[in-house]
Amino acid sequence: MTYEEALSFITGLINYEKKFAQYNEENYNPEKISHALNSENISLKAKIFHIAGTKGKGSTSIYLAELIYRHSGESTALYTSPHIDKINERIVVNGVAISDNEFAELITEYKDKFAFYGFTFFEALTFIAMVYFERKECKYIVLETGLGGRLDATNFCKPVLSIITPISFDHTDILGKTLSKIAYEKAGIIKENTPVLSAKQKFEALRTLKEDAFKKNSLFFYLPEIVNYRIDRKNKIVDINFKDISFKGLKFYLPSDVFIDNFILSLIAFKLHFNELNRKVIENVLQIDLPFRMKLKENFLFDVAHNDDSIEKLFKNIKAYGVGGERKVLLFGILRDKELKRIAKVIKKYRKMFEKIVLFDFEAIRNSGSKELFDLLKPIKNVEYVKDLKNFNFDENSFYVITGSFYIMKYVEILAQKFRK
Fold first, then answer.
1. What is the Cα–Cα distance from 269 to 66, expressed in whole angstroms?
2. According to the model, what pLDDT value does residue 19 have?
3. Rounded distance between C-alpha atoms, residue 349 and residue 109, angstroms
4. Which residues on neighbouring strands pair with residue 144, listed in sequence order?
């Protein structure tokens, strides 16, 4: 199979990223991956760091993989989702995505097995990622969950550390209407006698995570209790203090408290397992450019915030770091299955930050919901809706904030490049 044929084949499988199925063990079953790996005599020898949560999973995963690889020099794998431009982005070893040829070869080799094991798109992709990582003799794997945790395809593993990023409201029709129920699903990645590290959580979520860890006899580490840090936004430096280690004046790249929080979560995860830290490595990783996270390109800011909590933190960071000028325009595209009422409240709260708020629809694997969001925001004077942003008239004197979904990033970036020309 060619790369294009392989891509067409795997994306033609049942894909719950396009439309979620009823959330139960019949439709979502991580044991299928375990069974397939065992049946194909694929024995993962790598140590796995498993990451779940609502916000910050992707950036925490990237930071952790970079810390491990740059510090240890050992082959380190990274599995994330969704991708922004190309599916290869999801399967990475030592910072390099799987090649088109390698991807096509794996799909060709196992395509007949996908039906045999009853794999969905995400399960098939997870399976070939694990095969690829084993063949690359990866010593470490950083594994980001797709949906929830308990029934996610990545939950086949016994990790050396389970990591929970901040939990908030997202996919409530599937994972539950309360933070406790959502946290219960995320806590599904916690394994017996396996340490757990959690980011700062709201009370309901924290209580659920602690109870689950206690039941499984797993040590629970809570980030606010084991580390202190101070952020100097003006100079973009951070001081970090652990019980036995202190780092002063660390320079960071992204103008965002959120990504400092995510970085420190990954840093403590690294420390818990390796019990050592190298300042030079820390400084280098703090400088990496995360894909479409607070990404500044002239008068455009791209960020993949896509739920009410992350969107509000984005707006707060823009204000706190003085990003952009007075004439800010919000370009917002969102999927229909997101928490639109919650997101509408956040936009209403911060509407005065923007001279104009433009909601637009877009093509994606799931239905766009910007028109529905616009209907909730109609009373606001500076809000408008356009069906397609390609006919939008950009103004060189405005500063554009683009957010709402992973799926709009590349499309708007291309439009922005055309405008700058």
1. 12
2. 65
3. 52
4. 51
